[in-house]
């Protein structure tokens, strides 16, 4: 590892946000006697999903949120799942709902996401929330893209007027991140290029970037020779290679030629969790303020 590079400590940023959230939650409770509650729906026994849900539960405990898990069989029918979502939507004590993906093949994911009350959609998957973001008027920001923006903000990295090159155009990361960075607000107002699997000559874009965000899910995609003029590099990718978690960026090569870089693990991931908690608290506040 290059000792010269300025490595961004995602865990430390997440710890600071956690302390802020504890205070904010306490204040909210003092004012309303409401404890934010997150409800997670998980189908089947996928180990990665179960691990993620356990992590969410622990994070909820740390910030004094209530947590409720609905662990269902992967054989549950779409109608049964829709009925549970309806019940959670109507439960005033539940402020945020997550439906863990991927869902089994017999369930229409888009239909499920549309069924979620947009006011409780703390993952920001419902098209209403994506639409609000696209129109420049978001209520919730999707957790992973928001974590990227939060890291840039807390590291005092100027975004306004800068050229951000995003590699990846998924609905979860690349596309909403582009929309957030285009917002007319502080820590945004960027010039954004989105590269994807059909982009020819990605390095011709990454070499011109002030900030590169890698979110393709391809280990080692961003090499040292794809980077020029010491940009900031944020690595969203999480890939398992020979039992080790690595990002999309060839860290050893790229860290030598950047001003700042996030590692994997310990970069974007821990901050993403905190963004989920922030959205849940936001949802609880919105319910008391009747935003939706
Ligand atoms: P996805 O598979 O849905 O989308 C990947 C995107 O990358 C696609 O738009 C595709 O066009 C693009 N792409 C794929 N190969 C490419 C290539 N060779 N060159 C250029 N573009 C390419 O994945 P996703 O859900 O957006 O996740 C992306 C990565 O981020 C994954 O590794 C995922 O595990 C990780 N992730 C991390 C967090 C976190 O909190 N750290 C959260 C969500 C996702």
Overview of this protein structure:
With 292 residues, this protein is of the alpha/beta class. The protein has 2 domains: 34-117, Leucine Dehydrogenase, chain A, domain 1 (Rossmann fold); 143-269, 3-Layer(aba) Sandwich (Rossmann fold), CATH 3.40.50.720. 40% of the residues lie in helices and 16% in strands. The chain is built from 10 helices and 11 strands. It has helices at 10-32, 47-62, 78-90, 109-115, 127-134, 143-154, 174-181, 203-206, 251-254, 268-289, and strands at 6-7, 37-43, 66-72, 96-99, 163-167, 191-195, 211-214, 232-235, 239-241, 244-246, 260-261. The strands form 3 sheets. A 6-stranded parallel β-sheet has the order 1-11-8-7-5-6, with helices on one face. A 3-stranded parallel β-sheet has the order 3-2-4. A two-stranded antiparallel ribbon has the order 9-10. Helix 1 (10-32) packs parallel to helix 10, helix 6 crosses helix 7 and helix 6 (143-154) crosses helix 10 (268-289). It is globular and about 55 Å long. The N and C termini lie far apart (48 Å). Residues 144, 167-170, 172-174, 195-197, 199, 202, 215-218, 221, 236-239, 268-269, 272 line the site of nicotinamide-adenine-dinucleotide. Nicotinamide-adenine-dinucleotide binds at residues 144, 167-170, 172-174, 195-197, 199, 202, 215-218, 221, 236-239, 268-269, 272.
């Amino acid at each position: 590892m290059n000792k010269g590079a300025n490595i961004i400590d995602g865990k430390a940023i997440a710890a600071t946000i956690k302390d802020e959230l504890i205070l904010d939650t306490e204040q909210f409770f003092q004012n309303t006697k409401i404890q934010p509650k997150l409800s997670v729906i998980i189908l089947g026994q996928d180990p990665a999903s179960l691990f993620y849900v356990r992590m969410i539960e622990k994070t909820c405990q740390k910030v004094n949120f209530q947590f409720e898990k609905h662990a269902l069989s992967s054989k549950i029918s779409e109608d049964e799942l829709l009925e549970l979502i309806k019940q959670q939507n109507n439960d005033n004590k539940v402020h945020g709902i997550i439906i863990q993906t991927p869902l089994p093949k017999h369930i229409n994911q888009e239909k499920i996401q549309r069924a979620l009350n947009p006011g409780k959609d703390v993952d920001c998957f419902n098209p209403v929330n994506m639409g609000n973001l696209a129109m420049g008027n978001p209520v919730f920001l999707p957790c992973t893209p928001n974590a990227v923006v939060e890291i840039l903000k807390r590291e005092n990295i100027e975004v306004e007027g800068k050229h951000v090159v995003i590699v990846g155009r998924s609905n979860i990361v690349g596309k909403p991140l582009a929309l957030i960075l285009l917002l007319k607000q502080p820590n945004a107002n960027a010039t954004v290029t989105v590269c994807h699997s059909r982009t020819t000559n990605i390095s011709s874009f990454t070499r011109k970037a002030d900030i590169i965000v890698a979110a393709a899910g391809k280990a080692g995609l961003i090499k040292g020779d794809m980077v020029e003029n010491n940009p900031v590099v944020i690595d969203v990718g999480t890939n398992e290679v020979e039992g080790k978690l690595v990002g999309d960026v060839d860290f050893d090569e790229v860290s030598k030629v950047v001003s700042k870089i996030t590692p994997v693990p310990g970069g974007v991931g821990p901050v993403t969790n905190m963004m989920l908690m922030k959205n849940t608290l936001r949802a609880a506040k919105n319910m008391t303020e009747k935003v939706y």
